[in-house]
Amino acid sequence: MYLTLKETAEYLSMPENYIESLITQRKVKAFHDGEQYLINKDQFNQHLEQLEKLKQQLEEWKKEPLPEDPDIKDED
Fold first, then answer.
1. CATH of the structural domain 2-52, one choice from 3.30.70, 3.90.105, 1.10.760, 3.40.50
2. pTM of the shown model
3. Going along the chain, which residue ranges are E strands?
């Protein structure tokens, strides 16, 4: 199913200019029919799923404790 830029923005509750920037950065494929961009809904959802996975990986990484540094010496 294809959505216009405005419909995609409403569907995802995001600003139109953010979605348009993703299109110009070629992170999301879209077709321009001469008047407007047409975006494949499934493809956009795929991009958001990848972002969510990266966010989860970052959160897991942040939760990992720092290992003790063997080079630290108490020099008092």
1. 3.90.105
2. 0.56
3. 2-4, 30-32, 37-40
